[in-house]
Amino acid sequence: MHILQQRKVESNNSIAGKIGSTWRIAVWIGKGWRKHLQAAVGLFNMKSPSFIMASSSKFTVGYALTAKKTQSFMQPALISLARSKGITFAAIDRSRPLEEQGPFDVILHKLTTEAWNQQLRAYKLRDPEVLILDPPEAIKKVYNRQSMLQEVAALNFRHCRGKVGIPKQLVVDNDSTSISEKVARAGLKFPLVAKPKFVDGTANSHALSLAFNEVCLSELRPPLVLQEFINHGGVLFKVYIIGHIIKVVRRFSLPDVRENEVNKSGVIPFPRVSCAAASADGADLDPIVRELPPREMLESLSRELRGRLGLSLFNLDMIREGGKGSRFYVIDINYFPGYGKMPDYEKVFTDFLSSLAERKHKVSSVR
Ligand SMILES: Nc1ncnc2c1ncn2[C@@H]1O[C@H](COP(=O)(O)OP(=O)(O)OP(=O)(O)O)[C@@H](O)[C@H]1O
Ligand SMILES: O=P(O)(O)O[C@H]1[C@H](OP(=O)(O)O)[C@@H](OP(=O)(O)O)[C@@H](O)[C@@H](O)[C@@H]1OP(=O)(O)O
Ligand SMILES: [Mg+2]
Ligand SMILES: [Mg+2]
Question: Where is ATP annotated to bind (predicted)?
Answer without folding.
Answer: 145, 195, 227-238, 253
